[in-house]
Specification:
Radius of gyration of chain B: 26 Å
Oligomer: heterodimer
Number of strands of chain B: 7
Distance between the termini of chain B: 74 Å
Helix content of chain B: 40-55%
Strand content of chain A: 15-25%
Strand order of the largest sheet of chain A: 6-5-2-7-8
Order of helices and strands of chain B: HHEEEEEHHEHE
Strand content of chain B: 15-25%
Radius of gyration of chain A: 27 Å
Number of helices of chain A: 4
Helix content of chain A: 25-40%
Distance between the termini of chain A: 84 Å
Largest interface: A-B, 54 and 51 residues
Shape of chain B: elongated
């Protein structure tokens, strides 16, 4: 009988283990990357809105208005919001300017500081009102931005609402006005 | 007596089998190619607004529709561009797939479809409002807005 040669298979596992460690490190880093994106839960109330079959509630919603102040700037032939003014009902929370043009750091810093102050004040005010509400009567909050206000500013208002502990909110916007915007911008729907 | 040089001794002992390493590297390359393609399809490159009350987005186990709206108002879902007029049927199809029928969705007080709405920070509000309006027509009320978390210092 032939004797088996003495060269038993002995694979070197080191490179494979190296690779596995690389993979582990990749996944650890990758998981952190993923959490860079977050979300604001803006679950809409089911019993309101245009197609609602339910009668509108008697309680008047608190209305946060984000208005375009001053003139629009024209960028690439399109209207762009420059100045934004924030109201809660009749109460004016102030005006700030968006740095759409150029990369001036001071301009951007001024914008962020002014904006933060305004929405912090709004949050404090909303929290006060929310605390003083009768717990049996829900007062919804309506965010009513002008239709050309950028998403960034709308999110700041939503952030203030959620930060104040309010979960009952709606967004406003009229169909006819939205149609007009599409026509103005020449966007095919 | 013939003696070996130091070089000869060293070279004779270290023989690395590269095969498993090359296998792993190929696997890695394939993995990255597949993953990057998949993630690019769903998430467009947008500059998201920053919010401090945001909660980490861990994704949802059940079906979730990711709607991207860029600053010009272009809507993209799964890498495909949709006109506003096409969104109604897209949303209805999604509700039919998840809930079974529109009647079922209505009976449940809203569809089970969850939407992650990713809008660029410079997107004008009317584009977002139009998407939300179309979603609510198909009884989709669970809308999450994608944001970047504020750095808490």
């Amino acid at each position: 009988m032939a004797k088996r040669p003495d060269d038993t298979a002995n694979p070197d596992l080191t490179p494979m283990i190296d690779c596995v460690f690389q993979l582990i490190i990749f996944f650890m880093v990758g998981c952190k990357f993923k959490s860079l994106e977050s979300k604001l839960e803006a679950h809409l109330p089911k019993d309101m809105g245009e197609q609602s079959s339910m009668p509108a509630p008697d309680v008047t919603p608190r209305r946060i208005e984000i208005k375009v102040a001053g003139d629009y700037a024209i960028v690439d032939g399109k209207k762009v919001t420059q100045m934004v003014q924030v109201f809660l009902g009749e109460e004016d929370f102030g005006v700030y300017t968006r740095p759409n043009f150029g990369r001036d750091t001071n301009e951007k810093l001024g914008y962020l500081t002014a904006r933060r102050t305004i929405y912090e004040n709004l949050k404090t005010r909303l929290a006060e009102l929310h605390m003083s509400d009768d717990p049996n009567v829900r007062t919804p909050t309506m965010i009513a931005p002008d239709l050309r206000v950028p998403a960034d500013e709308v999110i700041q208002a939503l952030d203030a609402v959620i930060g104040a502990g309010i979960t009952d909110m709606t967004f406003s916007g009229h169909v006819a006005d939205i149609d007009k915007m599409y026509r103005e911008d020449g966007i095919e729907r | 007596m013939a003696s070996k040089t130091l070089d000869e001794i060293v070279n004779s002992k270290f023989e690395i089998d590269m095969t498993p390493m090359i296998d792993c590297v190929f696997q890695l390359i394939i993995f990255f190619m597949v993953v990057s393609k998949m993630s690019q399809d769903k998430l467009e490159a947008l500059i998201l607004p920053v919010a401090s009350s945001a909660i980490p987005d861990k994704g949802v186990g059940s079906r979730r529709m990711i709607i991207n709206v860029d600053k010009d108002g272009t809507v993209k879902i799964d890498g495909r561009r949709f006109k506003m007029s096409e969104l109604d049927s897209k949303f209805e199809l999604e509700v039919l797939t998840v809930d079974g029928s529109m009647e079922q969705a209505l009976a449940n007080g809203g569809s089970k479809v969850i939407v992650l709405l990713r809008a660029d920070q410079d997107t004008q509000y009317y584009h977002i409002q139009e998407v939300i309006r179309k979603l609510s027509f198909k009884f989709i009320f669970k809308i999450d807005l994608a944001v970047k978390p504020a750095n808490k210092t």
